Amino acid sequence: MSPIDWIIMLGTLLGIVAYGVWKTRKVDSVQSYLLGDRDLPWWTIGLSIMATQASAITFLSTPGQAYESGMGFAQFYFGLPLAMVILAIFFLPIYYRLKVYTAYEYLESRFDLKTRTLTAILFLVQRGLAAGLTIYAPAIILSTILGWNLQLTILFIGAVVIFYTVMGGTKAVSVTQKQQMIIILGGMFIAAIITLFKLPEDVSFSDTLNIAGKMGKLEVVDFNFDLSKRYNIWSGMIGGVFLFLSYFGTDQSQVQRYLSGKSLTESRLGLLFNGIFKVPMQFSVLFVGILVFIFFLFTKPPVHFNKGNINSLKGTQSELAYQDLEQQYDRVFESKKIAVNDLMTAFDNENQTAIAAAQTRVNNFQEQENLIRTEVDNLIVKENPSAKTKDTDYVFITFIMNYLPVGLIGLLLAVIFSAAMSSTASELNALATTTVIDLYKRSIVTEKSDAHYLSASKWITIMWGGVALIFASTAGLFDNLIQAVNIIGSLFYGAILGIFLLAFFFQKRDSKSLTLGSFTGAVLGAIAVGLYTGELNADAAIFGGVMGGLLGLIAIYAFFRGISSNAVFYGAVLGEIAVLYIFYLNSNGTINISYLWLNLIGCVLVILFAMILQATGLAGKVNR
Amino acid sequence: KSYKEDPPPIFQSWNQMYVFVLVLHIIIVSLFYMAYS
User: Fold this and answer.
1) Where are the domains of chain B?
2) Is the Cβ–Cβ distance between A113 and A98 less than 8 Å?
3) What tens digit of pLDDT does each residue of A425-445 get?
4) Interchain contact B9–A (C-beta under 8 A)
5) Does A497 or A238 have the greater pLDDT score?
6) Of A172, A195, A320, A409, which has the highest C-beta tally within 10 A?
7) Chain A: residue nearest B32 by CA?
8) Which residues contact B32 (CB under 8 A, 6 or more apart)?
9) How far is the C-alpha of A314 from the C-alpha of A318, rounded, in Å?
10) Is A40 helix (H, G, I), strand (E, B) or coil?
């Protein structure tokens, strides 16, 4: 890295932090520390929501994912706009009417203290671990490629975030996120333009699309229904709606962003802004990965992108075998390059036969390259059994460091750090708010002055920052833990959402309970039909139909009865146990369901168990 | 009501705004669905 890059990177990062701390130097009450005086306009809320969701991994991994397996990941976000509209209609008015600090506070006024405390603790466990990973994930990639010390990189991200989050609270988070998001969007836009100019002169933009399409990279929409495949339009539209409803509606790190809005209208507009721009933004980030893929068709990429793994082969018995594979790779790459040029010529001549022939050759060479890459992976594992051979996370950063001009490298590193910091700041801020409002002030130390709770909020923010840092600096020791945290959201989100849906929709003689019950029933029916058409599985169709009908009946029952707080609490406990059991079956290979679906399953099970407890009279009287 | 529910800017009612957002999203997804395979 050149001095210019260092100056641009550190200048950008520290400038934003200094501005954030200076702007919030007058925060002197719990209300303004935790809710930021509720004065944010819609566009700040929108940027803040996007900055919270987009972590460093979004910008490091997403282009690599497109490089490896194409644009299908965009489908993950297809359910988001619908979730935003549902939140704007049902969730926001209730939060605003009750003037809550946290989402969980509402659960006590609707049900009781134990339901509120259970949900708050579920959130703290999940988010507390995830915050550590938000810091660790980019630090391990950057330290490998740039040769930095891993612990120092973690400490740098953590210390800066803790500093401004403790100093200025929610307001500092929002103020800095606005600036960070501008850097992120600007940096990615410039990177896309520069990458386009980096392609050989005779490769036009339509050539890029044609080649990427013929190599199977532009399949944005996949209609095949397969429960075990992670991204298709069904998992995105159905599983995604439930995931984003619970993430944006019940995860305090997001709820806090729009609760600090000026009014209900501003918050709604902020959410809808996110709903409209999120999908195109992710599409653009993925498309940068496609451009990098095309770039590496004409410039030879490393046979394996994780430099650390390749360095570990030096001086071992496998070194000669690796050099041999590298020479094979060079030859295949050169042949592939000729085939790609033939493909472009065939496009120019509009000769369909030649296009098909060249396409077959290109894809054959690509297959050969993949086989060589797999053999290199095997060598790495042979020499170091605990090594990670998945190198898609390293593709984009390798491209940045080796092929982008001085100055832009510093800017893009600032983008990655900004994304890590903006997400971590929201998480720490929300963890502290939930701890203070839902546990400390509610059940532990209840009658103290405002100043006491303000200083408690600051100390608790420091504590959660410490937890995140400790987890980040030891995460490398627990490989399985990292995978677990990545899916831990799906394990808890469904149950939390189930509790909230019961709260919102199951009031006596309230047509909303009918709507929700029928909707859930319809969703299950749709899944059944999808299974039926996708795999001709009659059992699944019958199962879905029966479950759908059952939920419809239960909804009618709820219409006349309502739901008691005990039914919700024990229904949630049972539902969560069931989800963990399904996860256990999944991890030992008995069943194979993509994690995205666990959100839906958890949510439906909690509602189902609560209704059964209510219907059998095990749960006591109804409160509303 | 202890909070005020104002109509959204540009549109006459919130429902119109929601429909606009969803229709826009459907158009975007349709564009993605729409050539290079």
Assistant:
1) 10-37
2) no
3) 999 989 999 998 888 877 777
4) yes
5) A497
6) A172
7) A220
8) A71, A74, A220, A221, A283
9) 8
10) strand
